[in-house]
Amino acid sequence: MKQIISPLLLIVLSLISFSNAYQKLYVNFIPFESVQCSGNPSGIGYGGLVNTCFTFDNSRNWLFNYLEQENSISFTQYYNKGGVTELCEIKSMKTRTALIGECVSGKDLVFNSFYQSVNYDSSSSSSSSSSTSTPEIYYLIQITKDQPFIAPSSTVVSHNYGDCTDGDSDIIYYETFSNQTQVFIPIFGTVSEFYCLDNTPMAMTCDNNGSNCTNPQDQTMNCEAVSPFFNTTASDMSSGDTLYTFNNYCSY
Ligand SMILES: *[C@@H]1O[C@H](CO)[C@@H](O)[C@H](O)[C@H]1NC(C)=O
Ligand SMILES: *[C@@H]1O[C@H](CO)[C@@H](O)[C@H](O)[C@H]1NC(C)=O
Ligand SMILES: *[C@@H]1O[C@H](CO)[C@@H](O)[C@H](O)[C@H]1NC(C)=O
Ligand SMILES: *[C@@H]1O[C@H](CO)[C@@H](O)[C@H](O)[C@H]1NC(C)=O
Questions:
Q1: Is the CB of 1 under 6 A from ligand 1?
Q2: In 4-53, at which residue ranges do the beta strands (DSSP E only) sit?
Q3: Mean pLDDT over each residue of the chain, to the nearest integer
Q4: How far apart are CA 129 and CA 7, in angstroms?
Q5: Long-range contacts made by residues 164-170, C-beta under 8 angstroms, separation at least 24?
Q6: What is the DSSP letter of 133?
Q7: Among 49, 116, 185, 225, who pairs with 242 as Cys (CB 3.0-4.6 Å)?
Q8: pLDDT in tens, 200-252
Q9: pLDDT tens column, 140-179
Q10: Global pTM?
Q11: Would you put residue 69 in left (φ > 0), alpha (ψ -120 to 50) or beta?
């Protein structure tokens, strides 16, 4: 395992230090419910380092580039084959571009397929044939230096580079949930609501018709070791040289 991981780690390391040497740039897809991206951010936001291959859901990989002259970004989806071949090598979609500051429709931008918008349209309740319209999502595209843009009072799920003793590990990529965001999670067939209570990330989960809710649960994660880029066995993950960590916290 180690022999396979090391060269890949070096690739990521060189990408990271490359961005460090110049400027650490993050692309941010800030979520809004309005077509002008006005008002307060609402919904699930996504972002990560430019020039770095990563995945939010293990079904597709993303690579974002910043085109300084044009004041735009390009972004490309790549196949995610799972395990050690998880690199941005084979495009699965045409590269798209967007201007910095542009407000783009999220309709055909699936960053994380584990999340879908809530549609309380249970098969059992045939009476309400016209389902309540689920808000469409729009993303304001921003580039930030050194830190991603994270709206206050959001639940943040971040994947960081660096081990837990660093105290100062860099975010590689992240997801944010504005307070009280509800998401339908198809693999469970349930709806979860994410919110911050006294700076603690909480979640409450219900059936898809809003019934049978669990008690709110604390979702805090501090520096959980993960290897998002490689198929690492459990024994490797506990070997102490894991350089990637996972966090769930509230922004303020
Ligand atoms: C990950 O590695 C384990 C052990 O080598 C293997 O059994 C498993 O099939 C691999 N999973 C993927 C998705 O490649
Ligand atoms: C988020 O929502 C919860 C409950 O719905 C509320 O109690 C809390 O004050 C809100 N948090 C912030 C930071 O606005
Ligand atoms: C909600 O869905 C669950 C299972 O899907 C079902 O058991 C329950 O009766 C439903 N409740 C209502 C109020 O429709
Ligand atoms: C309510 O949720 C629990 C799990 O949280 C599940 O085991 C149970 O079957 C659900 N009840 C109904 C009526 O769907």
A1: no
A2: 25-32, 44-49
A3: 81
A4: 55
A5: 164/222, 164/223, 164/225, 164/245, 169/245, 170/16, 170/24, 170/49
A6: P
A7: 225
A8: 999 999 999 889 999 999 999 888 876 544 433 444 443 334 467 889 999 98
A9: 999 999 999 999 999 999 988 876 776 667 899 999 999 9
A10: 0.79
A11: alpha
